[in-house]
Design brief:
Strand content of chain B: 5-15%
Helix content of chain A: 55-70%
Order of helices and strands of chain B: HHHHEEHHH
Number of helices of chain A: 3
Radius of gyration of chain A: 24 Å
Oligomer: heterodimer
Order of helices and strands of chain A: HHHE
Number of strands of chain B: 2
Shape of chain B: globular
Largest interface: A-B, 39 and 66 residues
Number of domains of chain B: 1
Structural class of chain A: mainly alpha
């Protein structure tokens, strides 16, 4: 939402801007600079979200259900969510 | 940045997202180790309350606490308390369908082999073996997976 409104306002600013000699060179340069700024902001937001919650992985990237059953059957580690297990073995972090 | 989700959590999440998750978990439950049983129950608690209730008695009849971890703490939780926590929507020990496991590369299993129950048993032996051992000197507390007894 924030990103979309930012793009809209930038495009509005570009549309209303006129170069003194009537050429579009300045506008193009301005647009390029703004796209770079928007792309940088997007990457920053994506990196921040990824750091907080981990990357969003699509459902089809899940392992097979049969394999999951075998893994769950033999699992002897801690019951935890989100990787809280590192605390029990700080040497290896796993 | 924190750590990644373990294989147990990924397995539980995978079965939760399968079309026959309830049947699969009910069938798997008696064949699982304590932590695996806990994951199965936590998922069933969200998928099928009746199936969850039908397994809680047999879970509590077994001896031994469940090793749990959350954030940077790990501890042993009684089975009854763990079941209570699973039912709470805001508990860190409950399965949350809106929160997928945290993995930085792929969801494939990484092959976790660590047996925390065995580690605990070994560290307890270590403390008993060392005369005058003080709390906090066990192999488990220092993170040494291969404790050597010293006399």
């Amino acid at each position: 939402m924030m990103l979309a409104s930012m793009i809209r306002s930038e495009l509005g600013a570009i549309a209303s801007e006129k170069s003194p000699d009537g050429k579009t060179t300045l506008i193009k340069a301005h647009m390029k600079a703004n796209y770079v700024q928007v792309a940088s902001t997007f990457l920053l937001v994506a990196a921040a979200l990824s750091a907080c919650h981990g990357p969003l992985l699509p459902k089809n990237s899940l392992p097979s259900v049969t394999e999951a059953g075998t893994v769950l059957q033999n699992f002897k580690g801690e019951y935890s969510y989100g990787g809280g297990d590192w605390a029990l073995n700080p040497t290896t972090g796993r | 940045m924190g750590a990644e989700s373990n294989d147990g959590e990924v397995a539980a999440w995978t079965i939760y997202n399968s079309p026959d998750g309830v049947e699969r978990l009910v069938k798997l439950f008696p064949e699982c180790m304590p932590s695996g049983q806990a994951y199965a129950l936590a998922v069933l608690c969200r998928l099928d309350k009746a199936a969850f209730q039908s397994l809680t008695n047999s879970f509590c009849r077994e001896n031994g606490d469940i090793r749990v971890a959350s954030g940077c703490s790990g501890w042993a939780e009684t089975r009854t308390e763990l079941l209570r926590q699973m039912k709470l929507s805001k508990s860190a020990l409950a399965f949350h369908p809106s929160r997928p496991p945290r993995r930085y590369s792929s969801m494939s299993f990484r092959g976790d082999q660590r047996d925390v129950y065995e580690l605990i048993a070994k560290s307890d032996e270590f403390v008993v073996c060392v005369d005058g051992a003080k709390a906090g000197t066990s192999a488990f507390a220092t993170g040494d997976p291969n404790p050597v007894t010293k006399s």
